[in-house]
Write a structure and sequence with these properties.
Elements: E1 2-6, H1 10-21, E2 25-30, E3 46-47, H2 49-55, E4 76-77, H3 83-95, H4 98-126, E5 132-140, H5 143-159, E6 164-166, H6 168-174, E7 186-196, H7 198-211, E8 215-218, E9 222-226, E10 231-235, E11 242-244, E12 246-249, H8 256-261, E13 269-279, E14 290-293, E15 298-303, E16 306-315, H9 324-337, E17 349-357, E18 364-369, E19 372-376, H10 382-397
Parallel strand pairs: 1-2, 1-12, 2-8, 4-16, 5-14, 12-19
Antiparallel strand pairs: 3-7, 5-7, 6-7, 9-10, 10-11, 13-16, 13-17, 14-15, 15-16, 18-19
Helix pairs in contact: 1-7, 1-10, 2-4, 2-5, 4-10
The chain binds flavin-adenine dinucleotide.
Length: 417
């Protein structure tokens, strides 16, 4: 089949790779000048199948914890909400209720685990090298936080996933640079989680995909798509529409316009987050792997010669304005745990990105209209879920039963609600 993919973020690139491996003639259309320039540019980089299986999405805490205010609110308002935003917030709130969350969570955990297995297999097959830090330590400042995480640990034990409640001393042995001055009640060690550089991986995979015949066209903004056989799309500056057997929309948080033009009402919204990346000043003072500060839902990761600290969740607003208080918190959390790890005198990258979120925290994956497919809305787990989602999408396009159950991810699930 002749297939167009709109968007070259981590989801578009992995989708291109998987579709090309099925022998399709694939073209990726990307408005920016390179791959992974938007949400996939500088996320925390966690690939945390165990954390997801236990608690959901790091940084977007879910399952009964859906407040919009207070110091520890998992998500904040970036602007005054209009009617549409209020509708999204209401759905998000409802999806976080325990009975719904259990099913969502199981689906998310399956996809995260499948995706990680495929990532590991891909790395083993291709021997590619990129920034990866093994292991994940979740730090709990108080006993109250420890108690709150216990049900998640039990879920890990029930599922036979590696994860251990460890003492503060043990946490300090795993991460020797942890500051002794910050109170630490205990930690959870998730040895199979890891942090990897999603942008680096996207760029490497883009080159691999190109070698297997995928055409990447940068600087191509898709204005609209039309369903049909063939399906067509219009590109800014081109007089005639292009025709394809299938079009896959992987345009992340910006997909709303294309969806509306197709008449598809998907409640996709950007939830903004921030990261700060800086050169390691002294390796002995830097983290070895991934560390999550449970109280603040801030993730600190080691990206090769850099340290990255990421967090914050803002609903509404734009990615042009930076919330100083959130950035301050990121610097503070890094200072609390790893003082002296990073060099802030030059080369610091402060970044704000848009997590493409659907209110039930699951992606939309599958056919949306004749000739139109969706692989989008991966929220705070886009990197962690991308490879499994891309494989699932390729199976669906081939008319095959996917290896894992993707039932709850259909784009139609919002139609009746
Ligand atoms: C602070 C922060 C921390 C995060 N941490 C993690 C983490 O630890 N682990 C994890 O798994 N995920 C994390 N995420 C989430 C993850 O970054 C996203 O889910 C993921 O990058 C989304 O990928 P995507 O390909 O769907 O979107 P994007 O990377 O945004 O790609 C979409 C692409 O489509 C292009 N596009 C849009 N519209 C058009 C158009 N009309 N025509 C042509 N091209 C178009 C865009 O230019 C863009 O390149 C984090 C996000 C943030 C903000």
């Amino acid at each position: 089949m002749k297939i167009a993919i709109v968007g070259a973020g981590i989801v578009g690139v992995t989708t291109a790779w998987e579709l090309a491996s099925e022998g399709h003639e694939v073209t990726v259309l990307e408005q920016r000048g390179a791959a992974a320039e938007e949400a996939s540019f500088a996320p925390a980089g966690l690939v945390p199948p165990a954390y997801i299986a236990a608690w959901g999405t790091p940084g977007l805490h879910r399952g009964g914890s859906s407040r919009w205010w207070g110091t520890n609110a998992p998500i904040r308002l970036g602007s005054f909400p209009g009617t549409q935003a209020l509708g999204w917030m209401w759905r998000w709130q409802r999806a976080g209720q325990p009975e719904r969350w259990t099913a969502t969570h199981a689906q998310l955990a399956r996809l995260a685990s499948y995706s990680h297995q495929r990532l590991l297999a891909f790395i083993a097959d291709t021997q590619i090298e990129f920034d990866r830090s093994p292991g994940h330590v979740v730090l709990m400042r108080t006993e109250k936080e420890q108690r709150r995480l216990q049900p998640g640990l039990q879920r890990l034990r029930d599922a036979g996933i590696a994860g251990r409640d460890i003492s503060a001393d043990e946490a300090r042995r795993l991460e020797p640079a942890l500051s002794p001055d910050t109170p630490l009640a205990g930690a959870i060690h998730l040895p199979d989680d890891e942090a990897c550089n999603s942008r680096q991986f996207a760029l490497i995979l883009k080159n691999e995909a190109q070698r297997s015949g995928v055409q990447f066209e940068f600087g191509r903004r898709v204005l609209s798509c039309e369903a049909g056989r063939p399906a067509t799309l219009r590109i800014e500056g081109e007089a005639t529409a292009r025709s394809y057997d299938a079009i896959v929309l992987c345009a992340g948080a910006a997909c709303g316009l294309l969806l509306r033009a197709l008449g598809l009402q998907l409640p996709l919204a950007p939830v903004y987050g921030y990261s700060v990346s800086a050169q390691v000043r002294e390796p002995l003072n830097a983290p070895r792997g991934a560390v999550t500060d449970e109280r603040h839902q801030v993730v600190i990761t080691r990206m090769g010669q850099r340290v990255r600290v990421a967090g914050g969740a803002e609903f509404g607003g734009t990615n042009q304005t930076h919330r100083a208080a959130t950035l301050r918190q990121l610097y503070q959390v890094l200072q609390d745990w790893f003082p002296g790890a990073a060099q802030f005198s030059a080369g610091v990258q402060e970044w704000k990105g848009a997590r493409p979120c659907l209110p039930d925290d699951l992606p939309a994956l599958g056919a949306a209209a004749p000739g139109i497919w969706l692989n989008l809305g991966h929220g705070g787990n886009g990197w962690a879920l991308s490879i499994g989602s891309a494989r699932g999408l390729a199976d669906l396009v081939a008319g095959r039963e996917p290896e894992i159950d993707l039932g709850g991810l259909s784009p139609q699930r919002f139609a009746s609600r």
